[in-house]
Amino acid sequence: MSDLLEIDNLSKRFGGFVALDKISLSIPAGERLGLIGPNGSGKSTLVNCICGTLHNEQGTVQFDGQNIDGLEAHRRTHLGLARSFQLPRPFVSMTLADNIRIPLLYTLAARGLHLSQRSIEERCATLLHEVGLEAKAHRKPRDLTQVEMRKLELARAMAAQPKLLIADEAMAGLTHSEVEDILTLLVRLNEQGVTIILIEHIMRAVMSFSRRLVVLVSGKKIADGKPDEVMRDPEVERAYLGQ
Amino acid sequence: MRTPLFLLIWLVIAAAVFAGAVVSHNDYVFFAGYVVLQYIVLSTAWNILGGYCGYVNFGSAAFFALGAYSTVALYKATSEYELYQLPIPLLMLIGGAVSGLVGLGMGYLTLRLRGAFFAIATLALAVVLQTLVVNWDFVGGSRGAYIVRPEALEPFGPYIRYLFLMMLLLAVAAITTARLIEHSRLGYGFATIRDDELAAEASGVPTLKLKLIATTISGALMGMAGAPFPYYIGYLQPASAFGLDYAVNSIAMPLIGGTTSWVGPLVGAILLGSLQQIATVTISSAVNLLIVGCLLVGFVIVAPNGIVGLVHTFLQRKPDEFVGRRKVELDSPEAVP
Fold first, then answer.
1. Is the pTM of this model over 0.80?
2. Which ipTM score applies to this complex?
3. What's the CATH number where A23 sits?
4. Is B205 at the interface with chain A, CB within 8 A?
5. Residue A10 falls within a domain, yes or no?
6. Residue A161: helix, strand or coil by DSSP?
7. Which of B186, B242, B278, B303 has the highest Cβ tally under 10 A?
8. How many independent structural domains does chain B possess?
9. Residue B263's closest CA among B68, B111, B40, B82?
10. Mutate to test the interface with A, among B184, B195, B203, B316 (most CBs of A within 10 A)
11. What total number of domains does chain A contain?
12. Which residue is closest to B54 within chain A, CA to CA?
């Protein structure tokens, strides 16, 4: 079986600055991949290239056996690629329930699944319950705390029923127990068959979640393998701790 | 409320308005009312793109004028070949189609721009179109064009009554369209565009397609509002069709009324439109834009969400205050048994 996501020789430049330099990466279905790297190493740029927010000049991205280069972001979401944003980007004028409703109305409908009004409402309720926000279903995002905002972000990504979920720093700035909450959520999703890429700075979270770890430094992939082996890699140590 | 019921209620209201105007036995009511109704359509149309999607269009006058000049062109063509004059509803549909198409084209060219850049592009469109019309001799160029308005049309009586009725029906159609959009999947999509386009795309919303739908509907409604205008005014020249009033009013009215629902543009247009008509008679027509300016400044400071927003906050605050007071009472020592 071919891999769910195949990135081949991907490069992205901003003017003279090379943000991503010939990245190749294959992710089989069901993987729990941790993606780490120092600030500015190109993690978010990679996510943006995979999700269609940015377009790569070189290389190809294949998702689920289909070449998705040049495809608009919403079409990629329809195919089963979902992401949460590093800084939560809720729809501020809508209630939480309506925030969740959007992917149901657009992504699921694009896959030919037209839900009735009632089943949409049930699904919104279920998803909000899963992230523990059902009590605030009719509140607006401005009433939420940081952790709740990130949970909403994940719930909205989950609503699109993705095959691959990319969580871009979903835990930055959260407390120990809040991190645990979100990790539990992600592990549960993965057990339901969703492939997950976790981008994170909190090493404890990455190490406990990932079954495979990829390290980016200055736009280059410098390591890829089992988490404990990768962390012992002298090159990774050098990148993180300096020489 | 279901859409057919909503439409029915508004048709009844429209019938009442028309009957009231007929009973007044004063044709001036029709002339003044026509302008107010025209602004209801324009501001509702503006709001579909500006309020729902968050794209500020400064080119309303261009779409309005396109509708008006479609009528002039058809009038000239039919007069030249001594053909039967086209009826107003058909002219409205043609004007709407022309403006809708230009809206689609403009959207395709400019919707990759955001914020001020989009606004500037729409303003530029108005200037370009005005220049074209000024140099197009067939529709009168800068000299303008005369349209001979029939004296009367049975069974409506004076022709202005017929024009008023047509505009009234168009206003009902515009409001119903706006409300239909608001409560549909399309409305949710528009709101995501206003809130955050990147997040909208990530949720699977085809933002460009939706924005094109918005510019087309919005442009078409403006064109439809403009189509009967030459018959209303009798003599159309570029400066009046592309007037600043249209651009400014169709932005100010939704802003003053409130941009998030169909009620806002309606309230804003009735309020501001009537006020302008009254000022025209009592003071002078030159004071109109001053009124708009002052009100706009006032509303931006006092009620940035418009009248609808103001009412909404007021209604929402009341129960909260009540709950708050109750809670204090329960917490106070007297409440302990």
1. yes
2. 0.89
3. 3.40.50.300
4. yes
5. yes
6. coil
7. B242
8. 1
9. B40
10. B203
11. 1
12. A93
